[in-house]
Amino acid sequence: MDEDIIELMKKRWTARKFKTKEVDEDDLEIILEAGRWSPSGGNKQPWELIVIKDEKTKLDIAELYAEGMGMSNPPERYTSPPVLIAVCVDKRVMDSYPDMMPAEFVVYASIGSMVQNMSLAAASLGITLSWGTQPEGIKEEVKELLEVPDYMELPDILQLGYPDQERYSSSRRELAEFVHYDKIDVSRLREI
Q1: Cβ contacts of residue 177 below 8 Å, gap of 6+?
Q2: CA-CA distance, 34 to 30, in Å (whole number)?
Q3: pLDDT reported for residue 134
Q4: Is 5 helix (H, G, I), strand (E, B) or coil?
Q5: N or C end of the chain: which has fewer CB within 10 A?
Q6: Residue 187's pLDDT is what?
């Protein structure tokens, strides 16, 4: 096995502050290409991506986010990165799955896979791609701002750029804490 992929996964992290340094167009294309080749349920590829570089649009998104979160100032996580990527889901894809399938789960698992692929590609280039799930109360306003049609959802706005903060420490549970064999061992489940 190529150990580099595990090291790359460990290298990936979420930043909230970004340098103003532009993301090279070739690097952006590599990251988008990684998303393109993500697995998706039934190969439906339910995503549409909006690459946002316009400063006014980024500020408008940040102001809506601040409003939805009850914040007094627009968060830097939406104004400082050189690129935002709005992840849209075409809900019409859900209608194409057989009735016995959990279509919403399949679609959002596909979206998660796509964002993870893009995140790993970004990390390999020394760039950080961070998730930014939108508060429920502002989703329609953000959709309107970005002219997203009604039959689509906008669950995430990704932040892409070079981090302008120290990486914080992040731990993971040991395998023995969450891996079970043949059936779940309830006595080993953590207290929440």
Answers
A1: 188, 190
A2: 6
A3: 74
A4: helix
A5: C
A6: 92
- Residues in the chain predicted with pLDDT less than 50, given as ranges, are 1
152-188: pLDDT as tens digits: 999 999 999 998 877 777 788 889 889 999 999 999 9
Give every strand in the sheet of 83-90, ordered side by side.
47-52, 83-90, 152-161, 128-130
- Residue 115: the pLDDT is 96
Q: How many Cβ atoms from other residues are within 10 Å of residue 53's Cβ?
A: 14
Token readout for 41 is 């349920």
Residue 45 and residue 174 in contact, taking contact as beta carbons nearer than 8 Å = no
Domain span at 79: 4-188
Q: For residue 163, how far is the Cα from the chain centroid?
A: 16
Tally the domains of the chain: 1
- Length in residues, the chain: 192
Percentage of residues in the chain having pLDDT higher than 70 = 98
Going by C-beta distance under 8 Å and a sequence separation of 6 or more, which residues neighbour residue 130? 14, 15, 16, 77, 158, 159, 160
Domain holding 154: CATH number? 3.40.109.10
3-state secondary structure of 124: helix
Rg (CA), the chain: 18
* 94 DSSP assignment: G
